[in-house]
Specification:
The chain has 218 residues and is of the alpha/beta class. It contains seven helices and nine strands; from the N terminus they run E-E-E-H-E-E-H-H-H-H-E-H-E-H-E-E. A hairpin with a 2-residue loop joins strand 8 and strand 9.
Length: 218
C-alpha cells in the first residue's frame, strides 16, 4: 500500500525583496504572499530573477533589502544536482537526504524514513533506479530523483526550479500530478517554469522581468 504523506500547513511571504549580485540588481522590490495549499508558478525570460527568487524563498540567499518569512519545513528542488560527480551515492541515497531535516541524519534507516523514501520514489517513478549510481543517470532521471528527495521530507513549503525541462511527455504528466497533490495536502508549492501545462495547472502565475514582478494572474 502506498504511504499517504502527512498533511501540510505552510506559508511563505516575501515583502519588498531586492537582491543585488555585484553591480546587478537580480530582484527589485518583489512582494509575494502564499498560503497553505497554493500552487504558484513563476515565469519570465532567462535572467529575469526567477531562480534568485526561489533561493531567497528557500533561505539559501539573503535579500539585500526586504524580508522573507516562512512557516514549516522547506524543501528546495534545484534544476541541477549539487552532488559531486565522484561521490558514490545511489539514487536512493540522494532521496534519503530529503528526510534528514525532519527525522534527523542518524535516523535515516528509521522505518518512517524508509517508508517516506519509498513513497517519494514511487510517486516520481524512480523506484527501479534506486540502486544505480546517481551520477550515471540521465538528466531527466536525475530531475525526478531530486524531486523525490524534496517529496521525501514531506515539507510544508515545496520550491521547485524547472522540474520538467528534460522530461518526456509521460514524466511531465506525472510531475504535474505530483505538484498538484502536494498543494492538495496543504503544502505551499512555488515552481519556476516555462512549461505551458504547469502554468495552466497553477492557481496563480507570477511574471518577472528584469528582477521586477510584472503581474499575477488568477
Amino acid at each position: 500500500m502506498t504511504r499517504t504523506p502527512r498533511p501540510a500547513d505552510g506559508a511563505l511571504r516575501l515583502d519588498d525583496v531586492s537582491v543585488r549580485l555585484g553591480d546587478h540588481e537580480a530582484l527589485r522590490g518583489v512582494t509575494l504572499e502564499m498560503e497553505a495549499g497554493e500552487f504558484v508558478v513563476v515565469t519570465g525570460p532567462n535572467g529575469a530573477g526567477k531562480s534568485t527568487l526561489l533561493e531567497v524563498a528557500a533561505g539559501v540567499r539573503s535579500p539585500t533589502r526586504g524580508r522573507r518569512s516562512a512557516t514549516g519545513p522547506i524543501a528546495f528542488v534545484p534544476q541541477r544536482a549539487a552532488v559531486p560527480p565522484g561521490l558514490p551515492l545511489t539514487a536512493r541515497d540522494v532521496v534519503t537526504v530529503g528526510t534528514w531535516r525532519r527525522l534527523g541524519a542518524f535516523r535515516r534507516r528509521d522505518r518512517r524514513a524508509r517508508a517516506a523514501v519509498a513513497a517519494a520514489m514511487e510517486r516520481t517513478a524512480v523506484s527501479t533506479l534506486q540502486r544505480l549510481p546517481f551520477a550515471t543517470l540521465s538528466g531527466g532521471q536525475q530531475q525526478r530523483v531530486l524531486l523525490a528527495q524534496g517529496l521525501a521530507g514531506e515539507a510544508d513549503v515545496l520550491l521547485v526550479d524547472e522540474p520538467t525541462t528534460a522530461l518526456d511527455a509521460a514524466s511531465v504528466r506525472r510531475i504535474r500530478a505530483v505538484l498538484r497533490e502536494e498543494a492538495d495536502r496543504g503544502a505551499v508549492v512555488l515552481c519556476v517554469t516555462h512549461d505551458a501545462t504547469l502554468i495552466a495547472d497553477a492557481d496563480r502565475e507570477v511574471a518577472l522581468r528584469d528582477g521586477m514582478r510584472l503581474s499575477a494572474s488568477r
